[in-house]
Amino acid sequence: MARIVGGLGSPHAPAVGAAVDRHDEDSAYWKPLFDGYRPMRAWLERERPDVFILFSNDHFTSFFLDVIPSFAIGVAALHEIADEGWGKRPLPAVPGDTDLAWHLARSIVEEGFDPAVCHRLPLDHGCLSPLSALSSWTPQWPVRVIPILVNVLHFPIPTPARCFELGRAVRRAVASYPDDLKVVVLGTGGLSHQLTGERFGYINPDWDAEFLDRLEREPESLARLKHQDFIERGGTESVEVILWLCMRGALSPRVRCVHRNYYHATLTGYGQVVYEDTESAAR
Ligand code: DHB
Ligand code: FE
């Protein structure tokens, strides 16, 4: 039986991937963030998951205003590296898991979620920044990746409660998959940030700390909030924390937080967490 052994939270800003490509992880500017990835990488090396279920969003890369699915799942055997306008990052294509992805798609549809099932879904910084910060890709990516993308760019976007429920549906889907796989779920995206308008550059570390406390201990209280609540507290683009709610919904009600880090730089509050699932079967 497949089981979720834990969940990770990671930023996904393009600047993170650019720092990886420039080998800038130890600069004074980036060290506080990349030091936060070290325990995450060590945890992954210990756990050796087979599959990441990666909750992220597209940034008008694979989808545009003509079609914006509320939810999308990538079922390809290999996910292409997207060109976001400045050339592709020098990364090999990312392996998928077609069988498990189709199982997830079928299961969540039965539960009332209707994702776009994507046979081709080139990955942008939303997926690649966290993947390249968490894993080495030579000689090959160490894990298969199933991207589940949520629209956070263009209203109407799915509610926080719906995203939390999507996570729970994914948890049940994984539990009903017969193969013996170790799965890790990832929630990605900036905590507080606003990239447009009057409050451009807004960051609220106090709210980010409260968000991380509540995500660990009382995630339902966050799932009851409205988009507007997140936007007021953390800035317009912080609404993408609903991707973290997907991750948290996929974990046991009680989790063991074994790592937490926070840094803010450029335009975004960067949170990093590792939660161990307390109900996953004996190892
Ligand atoms: C930026 C982009 C993102 O998608 C994000 O989540 C945070 C920051 C940026 O362009 O700085
Ligand atoms: Fe983003």
Pick out its properties.
single chain, 283 residues, Protocatechuate 4,5-dioxygenase, Chain B, two-stranded antiparallel ribbon, 9 helices, binds 3,4-dihydroxybenzoic acid, binds fe (iii) ion
Structure notes:
The chain has 283 residues and is of the alpha/beta class. It has a single domain, classed as LigB-like (Protocatechuate 4,5-dioxygenase, Chain B, 3-Layer(aba) Sandwich), CATH 3.40.830.10. 35% of the residues lie in helices and 21% in strands. It contains nine helices and ten strands. The strands form two sheets. Strands 6-3-7-2-8-1-10-9 form an eight-stranded mixed β-sheet, sandwiched between helices. α3 packs across α5 and α5 packs parallel to α9. It is globular and about 50 Å long. The chain starts with a strand and ends in a 6-residue tail after the last strand. Bound molecules: 3,4-dihydroxybenzoic acid and fe (iii) ion.
What's the layout of helices and strands?
Blueprint (H helix, E strand, L loop, with lengths): L2 E8 L3 H8 L9 H17 L3 E6 L14 E4 L3 E2 L14 E2 L2 H13 L5 E3 L6 H10 L9 E7 L9 H16 L6 E7 L16 H13 L1 H5 L3 H8 L7 H8 L5 E11 L2 E10 L6
Parallel strand pairs: 1-8, 2-7, 2-8, 3-6
Antiparallel strand pairs: 1-10, 3-7, 4-5, 9-10
Helix pairs in contact: 1-4, 3-5, 5-9
Bound molecules: 3,4-dihydroxybenzoic acid (DHB) and fe (iii) ion.
3,4-dihydroxybenzoic acid binds next to α1.
Number of helices: 9
* Overall strand count: 10
Output the helix-strand order.
EHHEEEEHEHEHEHHHHEE
Give the class-level CATH name: Alpha Beta
Largest sheet: 8 strands, mixed
Q: Please estimate the helix content.
A: 25-40%
Q: In CATH, what is the homologous superfamily?
A: LigB-like
Classify the secondary structure makeup into a structural class. alpha/beta
CATH topology group: Protocatechuate 4,5-dioxygenase, Chain B
Approximate strand percentage: 15-25%
Shape: globular
Parts with pLDDT < 50 across at least 5 consecutive residues: none
Total discrete domains: 1
Please tell me the CATH architecture by its name.
3-Layer(aba) Sandwich
User: Looking across the biggest beta sheet, what order are the strands in?
Assistant: 6-3-7-2-8-1-10-9
Distance between the termini: 12 Å
Mean pLDDT: 97
Distinct bound molecules:
3,4-dihydroxybenzoic acid, fe (iii) ion
Global Rg = 17 Å
